[in-house]
């Protein structure tokens, strides 16, 4: 479906060519391509510029030929080759196995939802939702995340308890930054626990799961920042922020991971109309971060503790830190008052995992000034979202998080290309059935059928009389560990040779024993 709802300026920015093209425009496009090549620009940026140049040249020539059509992915999307897909599958396997290890089931929801289902749930980010053309009386939008569809699913099916994971693509009309893993179409891996439980127990398990996944992925140093929306609301109230400005100020604080305090403060004062002295008080608090010791420090701040929201939020934070210590993840946590997460539906604990510079996966040392290189996971508690979809307003408390896998893929792809991850296999073949002589194609087929029927991943070359050296080289290139070799002599004896590709050692076995022998070696 085509996407609607762009402003004039946005439509102009999306256009690749003008109706009337001049030689000067073509020359400018050529100069842009030369400049990008000289600067070593990312491949996606260079390809887009070359595509625009080709279209401009075609328009200038005035001939509407098929060659003017530029084959390219839509802006903010990409294709993945077999090498990249092997890395993606490795990530999905690690994430899925961890979710299952903690007892989660999986569900699937439509890629688009009723527009009214999504609107009003994402704060200032609602403008990034893709709207679809009216296809028959329903106003639809592509899903922005997997959390709101999950809440709709719970309310619609009247489910009160569920531990679920969901891995699927979501869509955001954002300005893409392909080299940093920011796309308009991307995967999210969500884990959520829905239901009424004792405080902070599900929340602590979410942090444990997040830690397990990021550790197993071996991305590098990371820290999980945690905060609480009631702590933020209480802090804002204590500093003198009017109640109707809590959400706008929270959205401003949420930008502190990208902007310096001076810029955020300017937004609060100039755009949100907050008095400078109030903004300065907020600035003093959002600089604080630590662990259990920060909980104790804040508990002695009478101005903050006079706010019921802050006091209740701090008690839950104290309990969360204790549970995380029992689960062995306290060294990864940082209680950080600058963490806000701008989505409107969060009501309790919020958390975000941030990668740090470094090669080893370990806790960031206290006081470390290592630069952060990006958020890879985030989530929190949303106790009221399901109730927004229920006719009687019945609430189902929920807590969960999402792994930003596109960012993870970008990091692991870079590591794989540099050889840090070792050899990445793009095929799963375990056995190559080969022949050293001519006219043995049907014999190879019979051996393949035998191994396939036994569930063994097997290949053969699609030639009647392949060269034996080519078959060996293919196994070495693709890291296939075993070759089954058949020749005229083996055929007469009713057997084959099993060849270890790495050691080149061979052993004769009868065909009747072949499956059992290979299964022992795998």
Could you tell me how far the N terminus lies from the C terminus, measured between alpha carbons in angstroms? 48 Å
What structural class should be given to the helix and strand makeup? alpha+beta
Percent of residues in helices = 40-55%
Count the E strands: 18
The percent range for strand residues is 15-25%
| Strand order, sheet with most strands | 2-6-7-13-12-11-8-10-9
Shape: globular
Major sheet: size, sense and barrel closure? 9 strands, mixed
- DSSP summary: helix tally: 19
Rg from alpha-carbon coordinates: 29 Å
Which residues form runs of ≥5 with pLDDT under 50?
1-18, 359-372
Summarize model confidence as the mean pLDDT. 87
Q: How would you sum up this structure in a few lines?
A:
This protein is an alpha+beta fold and 522 residues long. It has helices spanning 8-14, 23-39, 43-61, 82-101, 115-118, 147-156, 201-217, 229-239, 246-253, 261-271, 276-286, 292-299, 302-305, 308-326, 405-417, 441-453, 468-478, 488-493, 514-521, and strands at residues 3-4, 105-106, 112-114, 131-132, 140-142, 162-171, 185-194, 222-228, 289-290, 333-336, 349-356, 372-381, 398-403, 431-435, 458-460, 482-486, 495-500, 506-510. A 9-stranded mixed sheet has the order 2-6-7-13-12-11-8-10-9.
